[in-house]
Design brief:
Length: 153
């Protein structure tokens, strides 16, 4: 179970993963040493899985974002393994989730432009040999991009 200090630490780190121990301790009301120990425990116990920089996709030339719904030909172990390996190896796939409904998975995919997205779908994803069908939903504008999980204090 997490105490209030640990929850506050998690909230601060989600907003600023580069916060120093002193900044964390000031923000949560603990002295630096116990604050550092709590961060280490949160890392060791898997509450904090990694630290990452959030990049501006448009500045990198990634002007096309889409959700691609994917239905597999079958649900054999080999097909699922092939699909999972493709997702793991593809930098263009930002997120992948198994879903309910008419499709098996939904991907969030980034590309330089709509043509590059089409190439990704037609020449990489569809050519895996395990995909029955896809439906693409272009993201026109992102209203909120957070990535931070709600941590109740």
């Amino acid at each position: 179970m997490l105490d209030t200090f640990e929850k506050l630490i998690l909230r601060v780190l989600q907003r600023n993963g580069r916060a120093s121990t002193q900044e964390l301790s000031d923000a949560v009301g603990l002295s630096p040493s116990p604050c550092w120990r709590r961060v280490k425990r949160l890392e060791e116990e898997g509450f904090i899985t990694r630290y990452a920089a959030i990049l501006d996709g448009k500045k990198l030339g990634l002007n096309a974002l889409a959700h691609v719904q994917v239905s597999l030909l079958d649900h054999t172990e080999a097909s699922i393994k092939t699909f999972h390996a493709f997702v793991d190896q593809s930098d263009q796939v930002l997120e992948c989730a198994s879903i309910t409904g008419d499709f098996d998975f939904i991907l969030k995919v980034a590309a330089n432009d709509p043509e590059a997205l089409e190439q990704f779908i037609m020449q990489k994803l569809r050519r895996l040999g395990v995909v029955r069908t896809t439906t693409t939903i272009f993201i026109l504008r992102q209203i909120k991009v957070s990535g931070a999980l709600p941590v109740e204090v």
